[in-house]
């Protein structure tokens, strides 16, 4: 059970990180340079759903793997920083 919740969190960690980068570096320039606001609406919606799923799976993995509270905070703060989720990927793999 612990391995499956941590593995699912590791997968969503990467996917959410990619969606954040797509939002920042592809959709935002399309909106402000080319004037297509729909790019941010679509990428933002997808990223928002993935971020909510990320938070739910983070709480699930935190509960199942019995991570420390500070470890949980590190994973959450890393998700707010561009490329942050990729730096925590190895740390998550140590719990599998």
Q: Describe the global form.
A: elongated
Number of distinct helices: 5
Main pleated sheet: none
Mean pLDDT: 93
Question: Can you walk me through this structure?
Answer:
With 96 residues, the chain is mostly helical. The chain has helices at 2-34, 38-65, 69-80, 84-87, 89-93. It contains 5 helices and no strands. 23% of the residues are buried. The model has no long low-confidence stretch (mean pLDDT 93).
Layout of strands and helices, then pairs:
Elements: H1 2-34, H2 38-65, H3 69-80, H4 84-87, H5 89-93
Short structural summary:
This protein has 96 residues and is mainly alpha-helical. The protein has one domain (2-90).
Keywords:
mainly alpha
């Amino acid at each position: 059970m612990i391995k499956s919740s941590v593995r699912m969190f590791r997968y969503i960690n990467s996917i959410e990180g990619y969606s954040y980068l797509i939002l920042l570096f592809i959709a935002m320039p399309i909106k402000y340079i080319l004037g297509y606001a729909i790019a941010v609406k679509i990428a933002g919606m997808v990223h928002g759903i993935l971020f909510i799923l990320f938070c739910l799976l983070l709480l699930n993995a935190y509960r199942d793997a019995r991570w420390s509270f500070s470890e949980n905070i590190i994973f959450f703060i890393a998700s707010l920083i561009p490329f942050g989720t990729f730096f925590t990927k190895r740390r998550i793999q140590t719990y599998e």
